[in-house]
Each structure stands twice: as C-alpha cells, then as structure tokens.
Amino acid sequence: MKIFPKETDYFELFDKVAVNISHAATTLVACMEHFTNLDNWAKEVHELEEDGDLLTHDIIRKLNKSFITPIDREDIHLLASTLDSNSR
Q: Using CA atoms, how far apart are residues 74 and 26, in angstroms rounded to an integer?
C-alpha cells in the first residue's frame, strides 16, 4: 500500500481523447469524400466512438479515486462529459 498514490495526469488523458476525436473526424470526412465501403467506415467510426467511451470512463473512474486534482473536479468531469457527448 502506498501512502501517496500516483497522481493522474488528466492532461495526458484529455490529449488521448482529443487524438481519438480527431481520428474519428478524419475518418468520417474520408467516408464522406469517397462514399465507398460504407460498412468498413461505419465500423471504424463505431470502434473509435467506443474507444472514446472507454477513455471517458477511465477519466471519471480516476477522478472518483483522486484526492487532489490539478483543476476543479467539476471542470474535469464537465470537460470529459462534453468531449464524449460531442464526439457522437
């Protein structure tokens, strides 16, 4: 048991969320430009959305376990929730 648990780098987690959203957006644009193999595009976008959900759940889970956060807890939760809901 550690006296001081490892701090969560929320900024790194949000960076991963942003990369995932960017990848999903790029994939969606490519789908609209080429408009072929729609099943493959849809599958890839769906998988990226699921990855985004997992990242959001990870942020919220770590937030619930953190005693000290670099910014207000409410702001971290709001940003994670907003990024997740706007990426759909």
A: 30
The candidate with the shortest Cα–Cα distance to 42, out of 54, 55, 28, is 28
Would residue 32 count as lying in a domain?
A: yes
CATH at 40? 1.20.58.220
- The predicted-structure confidence for 18-44, as pLDDT tens digits, reads as follows 999 999 999 989 888 988 888 998 899
Place of tokens 């648990």: 5
7: its two tokens: 């701090």
Could you give the CA distance from residue 62 to residue 11 in angstroms, rounded to a whole number? 13
How many domains does one find in the chain? Answer: 1
Does residue 4 sit within a domain?
A: no
